[in-house]
Backbone:
């Protein structure tokens, strides 16, 4: 969405400093800083300025109606209702404005009809009963509309119920006090209609901001956010040698300042309500711009968003692994680095391609990409499978760090069942590569040394029981616990890999959902 | 929250059928069904009825002011503004109403002051310039308020900016047209004040619905939802023998009809916006009911909610494991059942205790519970560690199902380093128990048979490549793939356990956050 898609640079980004002309920050007056912030905010999305000027234009147009006297003489004081209508109806997007307008129009109409009927009934009941009937009807209209707007399926029309309530009260009361209710009601209706028409015209004809376009861009942005976050998380996981890890208790789980993509991903997770609201607005919009046919499947966007969130949950779990107290040793992570990185990059590329296809409204099959993602994931699976002894036999390794077990049951079996398939050979060479990588790591940075680094973190788990270690025979009990943790620590790599594989498995559903969207929205085919 | 906390019964709950007097559903008219639905909806939360009747009462009171003639004669037609104010200001909770009232009052005041000032300026500029100055000022007020309400930190005051806009327009225009702007403005202010006062009094004195209470109950409910969902997910994972699994492609990832607790948990995950909105309303409320001191830390509720969501992400990942295409064999899951169940139950109990403590506004240390959670988790870790050969040596098992490897390196090492610590003995007996359980399972339901059941699922992954299996030398290639999947399948149990352990690790943070809340909110201590 913001152009920097290709690669992730993990660094601490100081948000407000993004601007172009940021000279010295020190010694700047608060007023200047404030002006710069506002300017920055406006520059981020020029639609904000457009929207503001459009509201100004709409109220100006309605005010002119009154200032030039003619409509004022026709409608009297009722004309001020047109201003109220503009102020209340003017929403950010065209769809939202149409939606509000519909609520307003239908609400006013229903309230008007009901008020006039009620008025006739009350008048027919005679002078004495009239105020009682009116009062009772007001009470019931208030209670019933308030109850109905709480009902889940009617919540989107909340505004309509408010309109019914106050329009009804206004018409029936001013009718009672000022006489001639139909005349009053009609004048007000015309005024509201004038305000509504001005609002709709200005909103949809002057630089329209379409909810559909917003939804489209939002979805594409979400794809990139998840891809970025996945890459960021994996990169950090592989780069983290446990030395620069902050004290866990200090990393409050909600602010990782050095992980900008994570924040975007979490924003995506929390965006379900926003997606639905924007899609709801988009449904009210006529065909426009790139979305040229009627009944455009906006609800499919919401569904693709839901599947994407489903994938993003796995990224959150991967992120949980990254910041978990129990960490796989650095060298072990290094050993599986090529496979993990490959699977990650392929998955991220697939995600970005999907996002790009949606953005360009193209429908492509992505078969090659999917195949590559699957084969790289299978490679990761196979690698984990073949080296599973690394994941569980940490006891041995700890006893004799540089010596690696040369022949392993799982390996031998794979080799005896040798067939002509090339993948086996590939995985064998891969196997050797891995082993040597592992040996190199182990030799370069001795296992015990790494373990010592890890120790601090192991000690700190479970953080509540740290005090218990202080007394008692620390050596034996601790040794016992340490062993368990070491093994669990190694298994945590398997967890990370499994989550990654599960993420890829879910991509299938994402591809299906995107394909359905592409078919329903009639994206142009591009095979 | 709804009383059924202790145990989870996994069954398909047909939502609308919850009522008491559900006789024959067939042959029922739509109208009757609709009435029953509405009645059901009202019965779920009686506050909904209360709220509706309160709105009715408030509009009735304001209408009476007009019907009894006296205020009408003082304020003239301006008095209808009080009705508008009630309809717009009356919100569900006391805090939200106060917040709206504040926005309305400050907005009206600012608009009034600015309008009167502007009026004087325009009048001083002479007859000809006056309308131009007024029109220009309207345009700028519209543009500036619209821009400001988009600014993130000002979004909560969106309503206030709308009020400024229309109040300004109304005052300045009716002043221009009708003369005597100050008189008009004042009359309208008084009317609005009357409406506002009636709204606030009715809302806060007649069966008040406090946002604070809602937030409190919402948080407690979230604790129970996460605990329920955890138990449900683990129970289903252990009970699922792969036979009754629906075709994966059919379980769209978002509707698991037989998992009511999962839905509640997902609702908790999506509730961040709601939490913040309710907390924002609660801040406006005076001390009331159980929340008796000023500056009650409502924002801490939001923070605890965030930490709880952080835990719930792990539950979502566990749920992902449960519905993953790659599943650990049933017998393997059975082998670790006691440890997994124990850890789950302890964790769920801790969650429920935390929720209960918050509900009762008690501050207890929960040391025993925490210790039990940790020790049961350690037991699970140790068990996974000692039986890690089960997780990786599936090749051998497949070749000779009933024969289990008797001496394993990891085991021997644990035994040679024998110390006097009782935990080792305990884990040894545990070890034997597990082995026998595993053997029993393997004998009862032969491994191959289970594998055949799994096969369908393995075949279907990656679902896109199913067609590839149809042609080519299925046997050799498939065998190769199957082996990899089998091992990965076994490792998926390790993933499940790791996620469970990570969940427990996060509980520490939850305990800390809850404790901070208890201290700041001055819950009564109960050690």
Residues:
């Amino acid at each position: 969405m913001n152009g920097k898609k290709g690669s992730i640079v993990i660094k601490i980004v100081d948000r407000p400093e993004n601007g172009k002309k940021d000279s010295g920050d020190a010694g700047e007056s608060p007023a200047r800083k404030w002006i710069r912030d506002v300017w920055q905010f406006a520059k981020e999305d020029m639609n904000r300025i457009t929207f503001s000027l459009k509201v100004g234009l709409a109220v100006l147009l309605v005010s002119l109606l009154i200032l030039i006297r003619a409509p004022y003489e026709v409608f009297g004081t009722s004309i001020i209702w047109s201003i109220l209508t503009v102020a209340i109806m003017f929403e950010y997007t065209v769809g939202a404005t149409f939606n509000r307008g519909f609520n307003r129009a239908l609400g006013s109409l229903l309230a008007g009809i009901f008020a006039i009927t009620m008025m006739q009934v009350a008048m027919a009941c005679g002078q004495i009963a009239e105020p009682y009937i009116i009062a009772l009807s007001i009470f019931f209209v208030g209670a019933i509309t308030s109850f109905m707007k709480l009902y889940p399926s009617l919540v989107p029309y909340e505004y309509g119920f408010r309109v019914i309530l106050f329009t009804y009260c206004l018409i029936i009361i001013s009718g009672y006090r000022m006489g001639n209710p139909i005349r009053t009601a009609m004048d007000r209706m015309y005024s509201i209609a004038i305000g509504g028409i001005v609002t709709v015209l200005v909103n949809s004809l002057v630089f329209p901001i379409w909810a559909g376009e917003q939804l489209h861009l939002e979805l594409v942005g979400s794809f990139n956010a998840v891809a970025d976050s996945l890459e960021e998380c994996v990169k950090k996981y592989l780069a983290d040698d446990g030395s620069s890890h902050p004290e866990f208790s200090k990393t409050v789980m909600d602010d990782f300042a050095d992980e900008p993509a994570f924040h975007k991903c979490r924003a995506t997770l929390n965006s379900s309500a926003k997606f639905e609201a924007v899609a709801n607005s988009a449904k009210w919009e006529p065909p426009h711009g790139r979305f040229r046919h009627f009944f455009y499947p906006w609800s499919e966007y919401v569904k693709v968003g839901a599947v994407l969130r489903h994938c993003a949950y796995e990224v959150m779990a991967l992120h949980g692994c990254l910041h978990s107290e129990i960490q796989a040793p650095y060298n072990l992570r290094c050993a599986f680095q090529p496979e993990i990185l490959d699977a990650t990059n392929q998955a991220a590329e697939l995600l970005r391609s999907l996002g790009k296809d949606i953005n360009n409204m193209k429908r492509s099959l992505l078969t090659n990409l999917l195949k590559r993602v699957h084969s790289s994931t299978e490679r990761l699976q196979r690698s984990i499978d073949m080296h599973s002894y690394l994941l569980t036999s940490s006891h041995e390794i700890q006893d004799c760090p540089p010596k690696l077990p040369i022949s392993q049951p799982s390996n031998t079996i794979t080799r005896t069942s040798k067939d002509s398939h090339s993948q086996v050979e590939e995985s064998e060479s891969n196997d050797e590569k891995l082993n040597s990588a592992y040996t190199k790591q182990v030799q370069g940075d001795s296992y015990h040394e790494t373990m010592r680094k890890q120790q601090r973190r192991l000690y700190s788990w479970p953080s509540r029981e740290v005090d218990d270690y202080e007394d008692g025979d620390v050596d034996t009990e601790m040794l016992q616990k340490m062993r368990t943790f070491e093994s669990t620590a190694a298994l945590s790599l398997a967890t990370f890999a499994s989550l990654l594989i599960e993420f890829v498995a879910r991509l299938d559903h994402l591809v299906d959902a995107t394909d359905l969207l592409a078919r329903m929205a009639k994206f142009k085919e591009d095979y």
Observations:
- The mean pLDDT of chain B is 74.
- Residues 422 and 488 of chain B are 34 Å apart (CA to CA).
